[in-house]
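DM from R.C. (forwarded with permission)

"hey, sorry to bug you on a friday — could you get me a structure for this? deadline for the figure draft is monday and I only need the backbone to look sensible"
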Amino acid sequence: MNKTDIAKLLTLASGFDRRVVDPVTVEAWALIPEIVAADYEAAKSAVVAHQTGPKAGEYLTVNHVVTALNADARRSDYQIEADVRSAKARGLIESSWPNRQPLPADVKHGLQSMRELDRRNAASFSELDALEGRPVDVGDVGRRP
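My reply, with the result:
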């Protein structure tokens, strides 16, 4: 983000917590590499999620936004390893790919798309389970007396 985007982000945040947005605040936030590297829409989502989530009572700090951006970008070692395992299992990368090496952007996007499709399919099956007569009661079959 550039300083104009950072100022817009802080102005949005001020709508929630009445913060003062001035050039000094914008300059301070512009010193944070993760903020400068972030996409405005992702940062905006992080601000809104903070203000509507369980930490809504806490004053929004740059750390809140950076933490949300990192979580969304799946940058922790655990998340990278989970993504690599999933991409290997789905055949998106070679099995020799190092477990702690982040995925290329195109593979990461493909993995996100596949996961979203899996979520939608699971939701549709869940809706089927809610229909009348489901889940089927099998009585005492398989139960011990």
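R.C.: lifesaver. The helical segments are 3-17, 23-30, 33-37, 40-52, 62-73, 77-89, 105-129.
me: no worries. The chain has a mean pLDDT of 87.
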